[in-house]
Each structure stands twice: as structure tokens, then as C-alpha cells.
Design goal:
By secondary structure, the chain is of the alpha+beta class. It contains 6 helices and 4 strands. It has one domain. Helix content is about 70%, strand content about 10%. It has a 4-stranded mixed beta sheet. Helix 2 packs antiparallel against helix 5, helix 3 packs antiparallel against helix 6 and helix 4 packs parallel to helix 6. The protein is globular, with a radius of gyration of 18 Å. It starts with a helix and ends with a strand.
């Protein structure tokens, strides 16, 4: 069955997977990120996760509530843990210097895997797609992952250490 699923996966999904792997790997290196990117990424992730829920299950109020709960939990935890650490902010460049981390790669692969799994379940018209427990679990996970991106951005914005690099 796995071979059949892979055979029927559109080529663009594999290309996207490769690009996401490359993006995730780039996050393992120290990097400079603009203030704009720090603010835009969580918004994009929120929109994409809400779109993923609505395209898979339709707009169901309880799934949106559970999504919000998941996001709130990870936002709270993320702010408590204050991750990522050791961020420096260059006021002249309006950019953050962020140490490399494997966390973004893990998040990217988790989101891709869940989206792929849900896509297969929907494409195969499996009965589980209509079960409340499945819908709420996926909604909770999408919300939780979105909250991580929001908390990371808030931590970065709060950590603005004014430095001057030549």
C-alpha cells in the first residue's frame, strides 16, 4: 500500500519535500533573519494551518476551538521556555542573528508529514476523516505547531539585544 501511495503522489510534492529539507537544513546553521521575516512567518503558518484544517475537514467550529487551544498551549510553553536562546539583534541592520538549531527542521518535517498523511487519508476517502477524534487531533496538532512559530517570534522580538557588528 505504501508503494501505491508513493506512486500516486504528485511530483511537485517530492520537489516541495526537497525544498523543505533544504530550508530545514539551512536553519541548522547560524543565520541572519530580518525583522520582517520574524514577524511574517508565524502569520503564514497560522494561515496555512487553518487552510489545511478547512480544506481537509471543512469549517467546523469545534476544530477551530481545538486548534486555538493547541496554539495557546504551545504559545504558553514556548514563552515559558523562552526558546530560541542566544539571539542577538542588530539595530542598524534590523536583523536578528540566530544560532543554528535542528528544531526548525523537526517542525518542518512534522508539518509536512502530517499534511501528507491527512492528504492521503482524504484522497483515499477513509472513514477516519469524518471521525470527530481524528479531526480534533489533527486540529490540535496544527494549532500546537502554529503556536510554536508564534512563540519563537515573540521570544525573538522580546530578546532584542542592541549590538553593532562591523
Amino acid at each position: 500500500m505504501i508503494i501505491e501511495i508513493i506512486k500516486h503522489t504528485p511530483t511537485w510534492v517530492f520537489i516541495l519535500f526537497g525544498l523543505l529539507l533544504s530550508l530545514g537544513y539551512s536553519q541548522t546553521k547560524n543565520r541572519k533573519v530580518t525583522l520582517k521575516k520574524v514577524c511574517i512567518l508565524p502569520v503564514v503558518m497560522i494561515v496555512l494551518s487553518l487552510f489545511s484544517i478547512s480544506s481537509a475537514f471543512g469549517i467546523i467550529p469545534i476544530s477551530l476551538i481545538v486548534w486555538f487551544i493547541g496554539g495557546s498551549i504551545s504559545l504558553f510553553l514556548g514563552l515559558k521556555l523562552a526558546f530560541p536562546k542566544n539571539i542577538e539583534y542588530n539595530n542598524l541592520e534590523k536583523a536578528f542573528y540566530i544560532p543554528g538549531s535542528w528544531v526548525p527542521m523537526i517542525l518542518i518535517l512534522t508539518i509536512f508529514s502530517i499534511k501528507y498523511f491527512v492528504g492521503v487519508v482524504v484522497a483515499e476517502h477513509l472513514a477516519i476523516v469524518h471521525q470527530v477524534a481524528f479531526i480534533l487531533t489533527i486540529s490540535l496538532i496544527y494549532g500546537f505547531l502554529s503556536g510554536i512559530f508564534v512563540s519563537r517570534s515573540i521570544v525573538m522580538l522580546k530578546s532584542k539585544k542592541i549590538i553593532h557588528k562591523s
